[in-house]
What does this fold into?
Amino acid sequence: MTTTRQATATATKRTAKKDVVTKNAKVKPVENLFLSRDESWLRFNQRVLEEAEDPTNPLLERVKFLAITASNLDEFVEIRVAGILQRIEEGYNQPQPLDEGGLTPQERLDRLSVLLASFVEAQYRCWNDLLLPAMEQEKIRVLQWRQLSDAARTHALQFYENEVDPLLTPVTIDPSHPFPRVLNKALCLALLLRHKRKMNGGSKQVTALGVVTVPRSLPRLIPLPGEDGYCDFILLHELIESRVEHMFRGYEVLSRAAFRVTRNSNLYMQEEESRSVLESVRAELHNRRKGDAVRLEIESSATEEIVERLRTNFELELWQVFRTDGPVNLSRLMNLYSEAKRPSLKYPPFSGKEFRLSAKSVDIFDEMRKRDVMLHHPFDSYKTVEGFIEAGSEDPNVISMKQTLYRTSKDSPIFRALIEAAQSKDVTVVVELMARFDEDSNIRWARELEDAGVGVFHGIFGLKTHCKLALLVRRDPDGMVRRYAHLGTGNYNPVTARFYTDISLMTSRPELTEAVQKVFDYLTAETEDDSYLPLKVAPLTLWDGLVELIERETQHAKSGRPAAIVAKMNGLLDRRIVEALYAASKAGVEVDLIVRGMCSLRPGVKGLSERIRVRSIVGRFLEHSRIFSFANGGNGEIYCGSADWMPRNLVERCEVLFPVTQPELKKRLRDEILAAYLADNTKARLLQPDGEYVRAPRIGTAFSAQEFLIRVAEGSSEKVPQRS
It folds into this structure.
């Protein structure tokens, strides 16, 4: 059952898209206007892989980049590929919308299967041909059992006896022992077994399949005693493989191979079937672990008999089997990054700049009454945001606190502060239970908050609560009751705040804080206000508001006034916005887009997007901030927010876009932050009309935006170089 708002938003979306298609179909064949979403995502992961291949990056950082590509690919397979398979299974064979490529699900799958196989091959070439030899030179080795010295074997076997063996459950598949339910992405060993004695007096010895699940609670890389200055490891499954004869006594082990199954991890929610959203999510999480198999990864050394038995058991097609020339599950190489204590092979340590109160301010509230505070994380320390929430918890003059939580972390100071605050004041928290792959932890947070006396809400059913808002109400020393707000582009997660770039705005301006209050009213009571200005709120006003801002630039250009757009985001897929940007370009608007991930817009097409440039930056920090600058005829406006320009953000989530109005803050966003990203000629890739990306041309001195922003945080007075 959908809400009236959802139904209206969906209908509006369909109508708007139909109108746009009709209008532009007269100008240019629609098939040429959009790039494929899924293929664009794969190209993003390719850019991450390029960082793993790049010898100018520190070696262990390259290992980390490779692990990230594997983690990214896992999510793509269990969500996007699984969704396509689901549609095919349901008998859907109609072409997708043109901004999805105009292909049928089967055609999309056929194209993706080829690209996925090619990408996996590239991952393992990177591991085998580039990273392993480079690590060997630095005396870091991932050894196989046969390569271990006597001392290393003794150490490994002791670890096995004490830590591993008690956790293992070997299973032989036969009529009384069915194939175990292999959980999603659990690493396992498959063994082809033959009984050492003939069964039932027969002359034929029948082979059987054995399965051992590798314990998830243990690290995948086991450190070994250092010898001759080497930092050595053995993979956990290699250690277990060395002992399988002891687990399957009475059998001859003919062959063995590590494998992993990826399952459909989409959550299929039905409101009327559950007592509450929390219980519904919890039930679906249980199902996710056992969803339909989507992919089988298995070592390339596996015999055909093992592969076929597994493929048949999991009901997979041949293209869904990926043979790995190296460790199954490269994402676990992240352990190598953390376990190898070699600082010289990592990025130099960096801590964000600490915020300092003005000379005459007594606390953060006093400071916010005088001016807005803007922070650019991680270059500005996230402790300022934590301190704001902690101050609200500890200050007896703070009457109430409201906050959204999309993702957080274990032992978060913010989480602890909210629990403490509930002991003496009204605290309301909107927890998004369906933050992908954080559902388990968010359920725990919600229950702990409720137990502490916090009023916990889960937003509006069918809409993810993705906005980043905190609102404190305080009775100030002058007797006035004021609101203080934090608005951000990133999650309230102190861990990811150290390596995600995000913007925070802390303000007491009544026009902003009152609008934030209205958003909380919408989230807890679904009450819609006539206006949320100066905020733009999805799914109510944001989509139309963004298009209006772009169309305003178009009109400025047609009238000869200054017209330009610089927009930074994670993804650009919304068809209506892409069409508006095309129209702006044709009218003369200069458009620079900084899009980290997926982008369906084709830049640089004659007569369509000649004035649009798209760049992606992949570097040390994950680019996560959303910043949107509009020239507005010479009276520039800048907004930041939680939403990308994607349909899911504009229609299916509650998002907030907020203006930054103080001149010095606008100048910093425009002339320092955005200018740095546009000047980057080291980590930037430029999107071509055919969907491929090329490195930004190196003209003059090498310049990295992230490295520049680190230097600025450390006190450098360096300026952004002029764009050529």
Summary: The domain at 142-345 is CATH 3.30.1840.10 (polyphosphate kinase like).
